Amino acid sequence: MSALLERRGISDRALDLADKVEAFVRDVVAPFEQDPRQGAHGPSEELVADLRDRARAAGLMTPHIPGGTGHLTQRETAAVLIRSGLSPLGPVALNTAAPDEGNMFLLGKVASDDLKDRFLKPLVSGDARSAFFMTEPDGGAGSDPSMMQTTCKPDGNHWVINGRKTYITGAVGAKVGIVMAKSDDGACMFLVDLPHPAIKTVRILDTIDNSMPGGHAEIEIDNLRLPADQMLGAAGEGFRYAQVRLAPARLSHCMRWLGACVRAQEIATDYANRRHAFGKPLIEHEGVGFMLAQNRIDLKQAELMTLWCADVLDSGAYGTTESSMTKVAVSEALMRVADNCVQVMGGQGVTADTIVEKVFREIRAFRIYDGPTEVHKWSLAGKIARDWKKTQS
């Protein structure tokens, strides 16, 4: 794994931490990949608690926020999160998984000290999970957040929120919620303790992916009444805060799933070298060897694209364009890698005997969440047109 990771610009401390994370994921977490405490909607709370206890014992809980306060740089975070992704259970165990990782980043940037103490600390310690309530059913916010239908109205020193949300990852079992709603001033965000009687789970969706605890839920919010001091930041700034969260969160997805595809490549490579057909190992057949060779190219390009975007964010730039480009390039490259791994392994590749088929399913979902490829390309095309117009004035 180390040979695949660009080490320049990453501190010795972060590299040492990344090596410890890799050893932990390979030696401690990976043996749980066949654990029966996993279901159609993700690992059970019992399994999550078991894995996190082991991460704490190893001193590796939430490793990208060492000491529970200062966040690693994005480039250093890449070194750690790529390694955490070597098993689909790695991010769950180490508390580097979505949506918690992105929610912790947002609260660290925007929340008041009181809100950090109440809501962020239990997330960083791994004692609580969280959910981000933004996406809505048909007619509401999705790739276009301006279509938001969930409303929030002031009532004295409180706000009252009503609406419906869908594809809410980890809502079931979460203790912290970030709810996005529309006021007369614009979008707002609120922090809420979960479970809450005004936030009802309509159903848990059956989806192609199942690596995240709690699955993805459809939610009804019925007269949720919250004190004004539980608003995150200022009224009307919700869309801006969403971008503060989403740009690095897209990149974190790239990091974690890059690690998963590195592992899938390892498994497919081992299979291709051990399995024989037509008088020689599969790896010696060009049809197989070339797929694994292309995978190596795609993995390296995905890594370099991820680190480039990390550098942009570390420079203090907003990073929306760069994160869109990276999300498209990496998700599409990793889809090719995962598909090739399945193909190389043939029948074995579509069984649950290894994590390869799971990685394939998870990467397929990755091409959609945090913005489908086509939405990012549409946004990038719009920027290209705007940039051209500037040159004509």
Automatic annotation (TrEMBL):
Entry cofactors: FAD
Pfam families: Acyl-CoA_dh_1 (PF00441), Acyl-CoA_dh_M (PF02770), Acyl-CoA_dh_N (PF02771)
Protein name: Acyl-CoA dehydrogenase, N-terminal domain
Residues in Acyl-CoA dehydrogenase/oxidase N-terminal domain copies: 15-127
Species this protein is from: Loktanella salsilacus
Molecular function per GO: acyl-CoA dehydrogenase activity; flavin adenine dinucleotide binding
Keyword Acyltransferase: no
Residues covered by the Acyl-CoA dehydrogenase/oxidase C-terminal domain: 236-378
Sorted UniProt keywords: FAD, Flavoprotein, Oxidoreductase
PANTHER family in UniProt: ACYL-COA DEHYDROGENASE FAMILY MEMBER 11, MEDIUM-CHAIN SPECIFIC ACYL-COA DEHYDROGENASE, MITOCHONDRIAL-RELATED
Recorded GO CC terms: cytoplasm
Any GO BP annotation: fatty acid beta-oxidation using acyl-CoA dehydrogenase
